[in-house]
Amino acid sequence: MTQVEKVLKHYCSRKILLISHQLSRTGAPIALLNVARLLREEGNDLTLISLEESPLRDELESIGVEVAVENEILKKWETFDWIQNLNVACVNRKK
């Protein structure tokens, strides 16, 4: 078992939030899609928030990821009461 597989196994069956600045078909968003696939294969419940609508949305939804597009998310974190129920959050941001 690889180190990545061990880490993913540790977070098995968890509620995980993924956040990305966008989901174009470029490096970081594709890497996030691959991570989402692995996490879903391990039975995790995933929600992804993207700051922009994107072509990867359909792919993510087809593997069972709940996708929300919210370009003002960083301005209203306090409105997300459900965030306290998460086990892990992963952010993919631009520099």
Summarize the structure.
The chain is built from 3 helices and 4 strands. Strand 1, helix 2 (27-41) and strand 2 form a beta-alpha-beta unit.
Q: How is the topology of this model organized?
A:
Elements: H1 3-10, E1 15-20, H2 27-41, E2 45-50, H3 57-62, E3 66-69, E4 88-92
Parallel strand pairs: 1-2, 1-4, 2-3
CATH-defined architecture: 3-Layer(aba) Sandwich
Question: Rg to the nearest angstrom?
Answer: 13 Å
How widely separated are the two ends? 33 Å
Coarse morphology: globular
- Secondary structure: helix percent: 25-40%
CATH class: Alpha Beta
Strand content: 15-25%
> Strand sequence of the main sheet, in spatial order?
3-2-1-4
Features:
single chain; 95 residues; alpha/beta; Rossmann fold; 4-stranded parallel sheet; 3 helices; 22% strand; globular
Give a description of the structure.
The chain has 95 residues and is of the alpha/beta class. The chain has one domain (3-92): Rossmann fold (3-Layer(aba) Sandwich). It has 3 helices and 4 strands. It has helices at residues 3-10, 27-41, 57-62; strands at 15-20, 45-50, 66-69, 88-92. Helix 2 links the parallel strand 1 (15-20) and strand 2. The longest helix is centred in the middle third of the chain and has 15 residues, at 27-41. The N and C termini lie far apart (33 Å).
